[in-house]
Design a protein that fits this description.
Helices cover 72% and strands 1% of the residues. The chain is mainly alpha-helical. The chain has a two-stranded antiparallel ribbon.
Length: 408
Amino acid sequence: MRDAAPDMPLRRRLRQGRDRLATALITAGGIGVIAAVMAIGVFLAVEVLPLFWGGGPGGPEVDLETLWLPQSYPGLEAPAHRWQPTLPDSDPGPRFGMAPLAWGTLEAAAWSLLIAVPLALGAAAHSALFMSRRLRTRLKPTLELMEALPGVVIGFVAGLVLAPWLERQLALAATLVLLLPPGLLLAGGLRGALPGGLRRRLPLGWAALWLLPWVGLVAVLAAWLAPSLEAAWFGGDLRGWIETTLGLDYAGRNAVIVGMAMGFAVMPSIYALAEDALSGVPASLAEGAQALGATRWQTLWRVVLPAASPGVLSAVMIGAGRAVGETMIVLMASGNTALMTANPLDGLRSLAASIAIELPEAAPGGLHYRLLLLAALLLFVFTFLVNTLAEVVRSRLRRRYRRLGGAP
Protein backbone atom coordinates (compact mmCIF):
# COMPACT_ATOMS: atom_id res chain seq x y z
CA MET A 1 0.00 0.00 0.00
CA ARG A 2 2.90 2.37 0.78
CA ASP A 3 4.46 1.64 -2.66
CA ALA A 4 1.17 2.14 -4.49
CA ALA A 5 0.46 5.55 -2.95
CA PRO A 6 3.32 7.42 -4.70
CA ASP A 7 2.23 5.91 -8.05
CA MET A 8 -1.19 7.62 -7.97
CA PRO A 9 0.06 11.16 -8.77
CA LEU A 10 2.25 9.72 -11.55
CA ARG A 11 -0.70 7.89 -13.13
CA ARG A 12 -2.83 10.97 -12.83
CA ARG A 13 -0.17 13.08 -14.54
CA LEU A 14 0.18 10.49 -17.34
CA ARG A 15 -3.58 10.41 -17.86
CA GLN A 16 -3.74 14.21 -17.93
CA GLY A 17 -0.84 14.26 -20.39
CA ARG A 18 -2.64 11.85 -22.72
CA ASP A 19 -5.80 13.97 -22.51
CA ARG A 20 -3.85 17.13 -23.35
CA LEU A 21 -2.14 15.39 -26.25
CA ALA A 22 -5.43 14.14 -27.65
CA THR A 23 -6.95 17.62 -27.29
CA ALA A 24 -3.95 19.18 -29.02
CA LEU A 25 -4.12 16.70 -31.91
CA ILE A 26 -7.84 17.26 -32.40
CA THR A 27 -7.38 21.03 -32.29
CA ALA A 28 -4.50 20.84 -34.73
CA GLY A 29 -6.57 18.69 -37.07
CA GLY A 30 -9.44 21.17 -36.99
CA ILE A 31 -7.13 24.11 -37.58
CA GLY A 32 -5.45 22.18 -40.40
CA VAL A 33 -8.76 21.56 -42.14
CA ILE A 34 -9.72 25.24 -41.84
CA ALA A 35 -6.30 26.29 -43.11
CA ALA A 36 -6.53 23.88 -46.06
CA VAL A 37 -9.96 25.21 -47.05
CA MET A 38 -8.75 28.80 -46.77
CA ALA A 39 -5.63 27.94 -48.77
CA ILE A 40 -7.76 26.51 -51.58
CA GLY A 41 -9.87 29.65 -51.67
CA VAL A 42 -6.79 31.92 -51.62
CA PHE A 43 -5.10 29.91 -54.40
CA LEU A 44 -8.17 30.11 -56.64
CA ALA A 45 -8.61 33.83 -55.95
CA VAL A 46 -4.94 34.60 -56.69
CA GLU A 47 -5.08 32.64 -59.95
CA VAL A 48 -8.34 34.27 -61.05
CA LEU A 49 -7.55 37.92 -60.25
CA PRO A 50 -5.28 38.43 -63.32
CA LEU A 51 -8.32 37.78 -65.54
CA PHE A 52 -9.68 41.22 -64.75
CA TRP A 53 -6.39 43.10 -65.21
CA GLY A 54 -6.67 42.91 -69.02
CA GLY A 55 -5.90 40.20 -71.52
CA GLY A 56 -2.43 39.10 -72.44
CA PRO A 57 -0.61 40.16 -75.65
CA GLY A 58 -2.83 39.27 -78.61
CA GLY A 59 -5.42 37.63 -76.37
CA PRO A 60 -9.02 38.69 -75.88
CA GLU A 61 -9.82 40.91 -72.93
CA VAL A 62 -12.14 39.50 -70.31
CA ASP A 63 -14.59 41.47 -68.22
CA LEU A 64 -17.88 40.77 -66.51
CA GLU A 65 -19.83 41.82 -69.61
CA THR A 66 -17.91 39.37 -71.80
CA LEU A 67 -18.41 36.52 -69.34
CA TRP A 68 -22.06 36.94 -68.40
CA LEU A 69 -23.87 38.93 -71.11
CA PRO A 70 -24.79 37.89 -74.69
CA GLN A 71 -22.11 38.77 -77.23
CA SER A 72 -22.14 39.31 -80.98
CA TYR A 73 -20.29 36.63 -82.95
CA PRO A 74 -19.64 36.25 -86.68
CA GLY A 75 -22.33 34.18 -88.36
CA LEU A 76 -24.97 34.88 -85.69
CA GLU A 77 -27.73 37.38 -86.31
CA ALA A 78 -28.32 38.24 -82.64
CA PRO A 79 -26.06 38.33 -79.59
CA ALA A 80 -25.85 34.96 -77.85
CA HIS A 81 -24.17 33.11 -75.00
CA ARG A 82 -21.45 30.77 -76.19
CA TRP A 83 -18.83 28.62 -74.46
CA GLN A 84 -16.47 27.33 -77.15
CA PRO A 85 -12.88 27.56 -75.87
CA THR A 86 -11.41 25.52 -78.74
CA LEU A 87 -12.32 26.40 -82.33
CA PRO A 88 -10.73 25.74 -85.74
CA ASP A 89 -8.16 28.15 -87.13
CA SER A 90 -10.69 29.55 -89.61
CA ASP A 91 -12.86 30.84 -86.77
CA PRO A 92 -12.08 34.35 -85.49
CA GLY A 93 -11.45 33.18 -81.94
CA PRO A 94 -12.65 31.30 -78.85
CA ARG A 95 -15.85 32.18 -77.04
CA PHE A 96 -15.80 32.30 -73.26
CA GLY A 97 -19.34 33.12 -72.14
CA MET A 98 -19.76 31.38 -68.78
CA ALA A 99 -23.50 31.97 -68.47
CA PRO A 100 -24.40 28.62 -70.18
CA LEU A 101 -22.18 26.74 -67.73
CA ALA A 102 -23.71 28.45 -64.70
CA TRP A 103 -27.18 27.88 -66.15
CA GLY A 104 -26.47 24.20 -66.74
CA THR A 105 -25.15 23.81 -63.19
CA LEU A 106 -28.24 25.40 -61.64
CA GLU A 107 -30.60 23.57 -64.00
CA ALA A 108 -29.11 20.17 -63.16
CA ALA A 109 -29.25 20.95 -59.44
CA ALA A 110 -32.83 22.22 -59.69
CA TRP A 111 -34.10 19.11 -61.48
CA SER A 112 -32.29 16.80 -59.08
CA LEU A 113 -33.75 18.60 -56.05
CA LEU A 114 -37.20 18.63 -57.65
CA ILE A 115 -37.04 14.84 -57.83
CA ALA A 116 -35.08 14.08 -54.65
CA VAL A 117 -36.61 16.45 -52.09
CA PRO A 118 -40.25 15.21 -52.19
CA LEU A 119 -39.21 11.55 -52.19
CA ALA A 120 -36.55 11.98 -49.49
CA LEU A 121 -38.74 14.09 -47.19
CA GLY A 122 -41.71 11.77 -47.66
CA ALA A 123 -39.57 8.74 -46.84
CA ALA A 124 -38.06 10.55 -43.84
CA ALA A 125 -41.48 11.55 -42.47
CA HIS A 126 -42.86 8.04 -42.84
CA SER A 127 -39.73 6.44 -41.39
CA ALA A 128 -39.53 8.77 -38.40
CA LEU A 129 -43.21 8.93 -37.44
CA PHE A 130 -45.17 6.00 -38.84
CA MET A 131 -42.88 3.12 -39.78
CA SER A 132 -42.60 0.05 -37.58
CA ARG A 133 -39.51 0.16 -35.38
CA ARG A 134 -38.49 -3.31 -36.56
CA LEU A 135 -38.73 -2.36 -40.22
CA ARG A 136 -37.06 1.01 -39.63
CA THR A 137 -33.97 -0.56 -38.06
CA ARG A 138 -33.48 -2.59 -41.25
CA LEU A 139 -34.58 -0.13 -43.90
CA LYS A 140 -32.89 3.06 -42.72
CA PRO A 141 -29.30 1.71 -42.83
CA THR A 142 -29.98 0.33 -46.30
CA LEU A 143 -31.14 3.71 -47.57
CA GLU A 144 -28.18 5.45 -45.96
CA LEU A 145 -25.76 3.00 -47.59
CA MET A 146 -26.99 4.19 -50.98
CA GLU A 147 -24.98 7.35 -50.34
CA ALA A 148 -21.79 5.30 -50.73
CA LEU A 149 -22.53 4.57 -54.40
CA PRO A 150 -19.86 6.28 -56.54
CA GLY A 151 -21.11 9.03 -58.81
CA VAL A 152 -19.31 7.44 -61.77
CA VAL A 153 -21.40 4.27 -61.38
CA ILE A 154 -24.65 6.23 -61.21
CA GLY A 155 -23.59 8.31 -64.22
CA PHE A 156 -22.67 5.16 -66.16
CA VAL A 157 -26.07 3.59 -65.51
CA ALA A 158 -27.86 6.85 -66.33
CA GLY A 159 -25.99 7.44 -69.58
CA LEU A 160 -25.92 3.89 -70.94
CA VAL A 161 -29.08 2.33 -69.49
CA LEU A 162 -31.59 4.95 -68.34
CA ALA A 163 -31.19 7.42 -71.23
CA PRO A 164 -31.66 4.85 -74.05
CA TRP A 165 -34.57 3.20 -72.22
CA LEU A 166 -36.34 6.52 -71.69
CA GLU A 167 -35.79 7.45 -75.32
CA ARG A 168 -37.42 4.18 -76.45
CA GLN A 169 -40.15 4.09 -73.79
CA LEU A 170 -41.01 7.75 -73.42
CA ALA A 171 -44.76 7.08 -73.48
CA LEU A 172 -44.45 4.38 -70.81
CA ALA A 173 -42.43 6.69 -68.55
CA ALA A 174 -44.97 9.51 -68.96
CA THR A 175 -47.87 7.14 -68.27
CA LEU A 176 -46.17 5.78 -65.17
CA VAL A 177 -45.58 9.31 -63.84
CA LEU A 178 -49.23 10.10 -64.56
CA LEU A 179 -50.65 7.00 -62.85
CA LEU A 180 -48.37 6.50 -59.86
CA PRO A 181 -49.53 9.39 -57.58
CA PRO A 182 -53.29 8.69 -57.96
CA GLY A 183 -52.53 4.98 -57.69
CA LEU A 184 -50.92 5.46 -54.29
CA LEU A 185 -53.81 7.66 -53.14
CA LEU A 186 -56.21 4.97 -54.31
CA ALA A 187 -54.31 2.36 -52.30
CA GLY A 188 -54.72 4.47 -49.17
CA GLY A 189 -58.42 4.97 -49.85
CA LEU A 190 -58.99 1.25 -50.41
CA ARG A 191 -57.17 0.41 -47.19
CA GLY A 192 -59.39 2.83 -45.28
CA ALA A 193 -62.50 1.19 -46.77
CA LEU A 194 -61.50 -2.33 -45.72
CA PRO A 195 -63.17 -4.02 -42.74
CA GLY A 196 -61.34 -3.72 -39.46
CA GLY A 197 -59.87 -7.22 -39.54
CA LEU A 198 -58.39 -6.82 -43.00
CA ARG A 199 -57.18 -3.31 -42.24
CA ARG A 200 -55.25 -4.60 -39.25
CA ARG A 201 -53.47 -7.03 -41.58
CA LEU A 202 -52.15 -4.01 -43.50
CA PRO A 203 -50.69 -1.83 -40.73
CA LEU A 204 -49.49 1.64 -41.63
CA GLY A 205 -46.10 0.93 -40.11
CA TRP A 206 -45.46 -1.75 -42.75
CA ALA A 207 -46.81 0.20 -45.72
CA ALA A 208 -43.35 0.28 -47.30
CA LEU A 209 -43.66 -3.48 -47.87
CA TRP A 210 -47.31 -4.11 -48.69
CA LEU A 211 -47.37 -1.22 -51.16
CA LEU A 212 -44.67 -2.82 -53.32
CA PRO A 213 -47.07 -5.28 -55.05
CA TRP A 214 -49.50 -2.41 -55.62
CA VAL A 215 -46.77 -0.29 -57.24
CA GLY A 216 -45.89 -3.26 -59.45
CA LEU A 217 -49.55 -3.55 -60.45
CA VAL A 218 -49.63 0.16 -61.33
CA ALA A 219 -46.49 -0.32 -63.46
CA VAL A 220 -48.10 -3.22 -65.32
CA LEU A 221 -51.22 -1.12 -65.88
CA ALA A 222 -49.07 1.75 -67.20
CA ALA A 223 -47.29 -0.61 -69.61
CA TRP A 224 -50.67 -1.84 -70.86
CA LEU A 225 -52.19 1.63 -71.27
CA ALA A 226 -49.15 3.45 -72.69
CA PRO A 227 -49.48 2.33 -76.35
CA SER A 228 -53.21 3.09 -76.39
CA LEU A 229 -52.78 6.53 -74.82
CA GLU A 230 -49.88 7.37 -77.14
CA ALA A 231 -51.94 6.37 -80.18
CA ALA A 232 -55.08 8.21 -79.03
CA TRP A 233 -53.51 11.46 -77.79
CA PHE A 234 -50.22 11.83 -79.69
CA GLY A 235 -50.75 10.03 -82.98
CA GLY A 236 -48.61 7.09 -81.95
CA ASP A 237 -45.42 9.14 -81.56
CA LEU A 238 -45.05 11.12 -78.33
CA ARG A 239 -41.52 12.27 -79.15
CA GLY A 240 -42.59 13.54 -82.57
CA TRP A 241 -45.57 15.32 -81.01
CA ILE A 242 -43.27 17.06 -78.52
CA GLU A 243 -40.98 18.23 -81.33
CA THR A 244 -43.70 19.35 -83.78
CA THR A 245 -46.43 20.65 -81.47
CA LEU A 246 -44.43 22.01 -78.54
CA GLY A 247 -41.36 22.90 -80.57
CA LEU A 248 -39.02 21.18 -78.08
CA ASP A 249 -36.04 19.20 -79.29
CA TYR A 250 -35.45 15.87 -77.55
CA ALA A 251 -31.83 15.03 -76.79
CA GLY A 252 -31.04 11.48 -75.74
CA ARG A 253 -29.09 12.76 -72.74
CA ASN A 254 -30.90 15.71 -71.28
CA ALA A 255 -31.61 17.64 -68.09
CA VAL A 256 -34.34 15.23 -66.99
CA ILE A 257 -31.94 12.27 -67.17
CA VAL A 258 -29.38 14.23 -65.17
CA GLY A 259 -32.05 15.21 -62.64
CA MET A 260 -33.15 11.61 -62.15
CA ALA A 261 -29.59 10.35 -61.71
CA MET A 262 -28.45 13.18 -59.45
CA GLY A 263 -31.72 13.00 -57.52
CA PHE A 264 -30.95 9.35 -56.81
CA ALA A 265 -27.45 10.35 -55.68
CA VAL A 266 -28.45 13.16 -53.29
CA MET A 267 -31.60 11.50 -51.96
CA PRO A 268 -29.86 9.37 -49.27
CA SER A 269 -28.11 12.36 -47.70
CA ILE A 270 -31.28 14.44 -47.62
CA TYR A 271 -33.22 11.49 -46.22
CA ALA A 272 -30.69 10.74 -43.47
CA LEU A 273 -30.45 14.33 -42.22
CA ALA A 274 -34.18 15.02 -42.47
CA GLU A 275 -35.03 11.74 -40.73
CA ASP A 276 -32.70 12.58 -37.86
CA ALA A 277 -34.30 16.03 -37.55
CA LEU A 278 -37.83 14.60 -37.52
CA SER A 279 -36.90 11.84 -35.09
CA GLY A 280 -35.34 14.41 -32.76
CA VAL A 281 -38.59 16.32 -32.28
CA PRO A 282 -39.82 15.59 -28.74
CA ALA A 283 -42.51 12.92 -28.79
CA SER A 284 -44.53 14.96 -26.30
CA LEU A 285 -45.37 17.47 -29.04
CA ALA A 286 -46.92 14.89 -31.34
CA GLU A 287 -48.65 13.11 -28.47
CA GLY A 288 -50.09 16.37 -27.18
CA ALA A 289 -51.41 17.32 -30.62
CA GLN A 290 -53.08 13.95 -31.11
CA ALA A 291 -54.51 14.11 -27.59
CA LEU A 292 -56.17 17.41 -28.56
CA GLY A 293 -57.84 15.74 -31.55
CA ALA A 294 -55.38 16.38 -34.39
CA THR A 295 -55.06 13.72 -37.06
CA ARG A 296 -51.74 12.18 -37.99
CA TRP A 297 -51.49 14.39 -41.07
CA GLN A 298 -52.30 17.54 -39.07
CA THR A 299 -49.75 16.55 -36.44
CA LEU A 300 -47.08 16.03 -39.08
CA TRP A 301 -47.84 19.17 -41.10
CA ARG A 302 -48.57 21.67 -38.30
CA VAL A 303 -46.51 20.40 -35.35
CA VAL A 304 -43.64 18.10 -36.30
CA LEU A 305 -42.51 19.72 -39.53
CA PRO A 306 -42.39 23.28 -38.12
CA ALA A 307 -40.39 22.04 -35.13
CA ALA A 308 -37.95 20.19 -37.40
CA SER A 309 -37.92 22.78 -40.19
CA PRO A 310 -34.37 24.06 -39.50
CA GLY A 311 -32.98 20.53 -39.73
CA VAL A 312 -35.03 19.73 -42.82
CA LEU A 313 -33.88 22.95 -44.48
CA SER A 314 -30.31 22.10 -43.56
CA ALA A 315 -30.70 18.68 -45.23
CA VAL A 316 -32.04 20.26 -48.41
CA MET A 317 -29.21 22.80 -48.54
CA ILE A 318 -26.54 20.13 -48.08
CA GLY A 319 -28.19 18.14 -50.87
CA ALA A 320 -28.15 21.26 -53.05
CA GLY A 321 -24.45 21.75 -52.34
CA ARG A 322 -23.67 18.23 -53.51
CA ALA A 323 -25.89 18.58 -56.57
CA VAL A 324 -24.13 21.78 -57.64
CA GLY A 325 -20.68 20.23 -57.23
CA GLU A 326 -21.46 16.84 -58.80
CA THR A 327 -19.16 16.08 -61.73
CA MET A 328 -19.27 12.53 -63.05
CA ILE A 329 -23.05 12.17 -63.27
CA VAL A 330 -23.39 15.39 -65.27
CA LEU A 331 -20.36 14.47 -67.36
CA MET A 332 -21.77 11.07 -68.38
CA ALA A 333 -25.51 11.75 -68.56
CA SER A 334 -25.95 15.29 -69.86
CA GLY A 335 -24.52 15.28 -73.38
CA ASN A 336 -22.17 18.15 -72.36
CA THR A 337 -23.76 20.70 -74.67
CA ALA A 338 -23.39 24.26 -73.38
CA LEU A 339 -26.95 25.39 -74.08
CA MET A 340 -28.88 28.06 -72.25
CA THR A 341 -32.49 27.02 -72.78
CA ALA A 342 -35.45 26.30 -70.52
CA ASN A 343 -36.19 23.07 -72.37
CA PRO A 344 -35.69 20.19 -69.91
CA LEU A 345 -35.27 17.78 -72.83
CA ASP A 346 -32.13 19.57 -74.07
CA GLY A 347 -28.63 18.74 -72.98
CA LEU A 348 -26.56 20.90 -70.66
CA ARG A 349 -23.05 21.46 -69.42
CA SER A 350 -22.07 22.32 -65.88
CA LEU A 351 -19.14 24.17 -64.38
CA ALA A 352 -17.76 21.04 -62.72
CA ALA A 353 -18.02 18.95 -65.90
CA SER A 354 -16.24 21.67 -67.92
CA ILE A 355 -13.40 21.72 -65.40
CA ALA A 356 -13.05 17.93 -65.56
CA ILE A 357 -13.04 17.85 -69.37
CA GLU A 358 -11.02 20.92 -70.28
CA LEU A 359 -8.53 21.57 -67.47
CA PRO A 360 -6.06 18.84 -68.56
CA GLU A 361 -5.85 20.46 -72.01
CA ALA A 362 -5.70 24.09 -70.89
CA ALA A 363 -2.28 25.78 -70.91
CA PRO A 364 -1.31 26.78 -67.34
CA GLY A 365 -1.46 30.53 -66.94
CA GLY A 366 -3.50 31.02 -70.10
CA LEU A 367 -6.90 32.62 -70.44
CA HIS A 368 -8.74 29.31 -70.75
CA TYR A 369 -6.93 27.95 -67.68
CA ARG A 370 -7.84 30.96 -65.55
CA LEU A 371 -11.47 30.88 -66.67
CA LEU A 372 -11.71 27.26 -65.56
CA LEU A 373 -10.24 28.26 -62.19
CA LEU A 374 -12.87 31.01 -62.05
CA ALA A 375 -15.50 28.29 -62.49
CA ALA A 376 -13.86 26.35 -59.65
CA LEU A 377 -13.89 29.47 -57.47
CA LEU A 378 -17.62 29.96 -58.11
CA LEU A 379 -18.31 26.37 -57.09
CA PHE A 380 -16.10 26.76 -54.01
CA VAL A 381 -17.86 29.93 -52.87
CA PHE A 382 -21.33 28.49 -53.45
CA THR A 383 -20.57 25.25 -51.60
CA PHE A 384 -18.89 27.11 -48.74
CA LEU A 385 -21.85 29.46 -48.32
CA VAL A 386 -24.37 26.62 -48.48
CA ASN A 387 -22.52 24.53 -45.89
CA THR A 388 -22.06 27.56 -43.63
CA LEU A 389 -25.75 28.40 -43.83
CA ALA A 390 -26.62 24.76 -43.14
CA GLU A 391 -24.48 24.82 -40.00
CA VAL A 392 -26.14 28.03 -38.82
CA VAL A 393 -29.56 26.48 -39.35
CA ARG A 394 -28.49 23.31 -37.51
CA SER A 395 -27.38 25.33 -34.48
CA ARG A 396 -30.74 27.09 -34.51
CA LEU A 397 -32.41 23.67 -34.48
CA ARG A 398 -30.45 22.67 -31.39
CA ARG A 399 -31.51 25.85 -29.59
CA ARG A 400 -35.14 25.24 -30.48
CA TYR A 401 -34.98 21.72 -29.08
CA ARG A 402 -33.53 23.05 -25.85
CA ARG A 403 -36.40 25.50 -25.52
CA LEU A 404 -38.87 22.68 -26.13
CA GLY A 405 -37.21 20.54 -23.50
CA GLY A 406 -35.91 17.89 -25.90
CA ALA A 407 -32.43 16.61 -26.49
CA PRO A 408 -30.24 18.76 -28.79
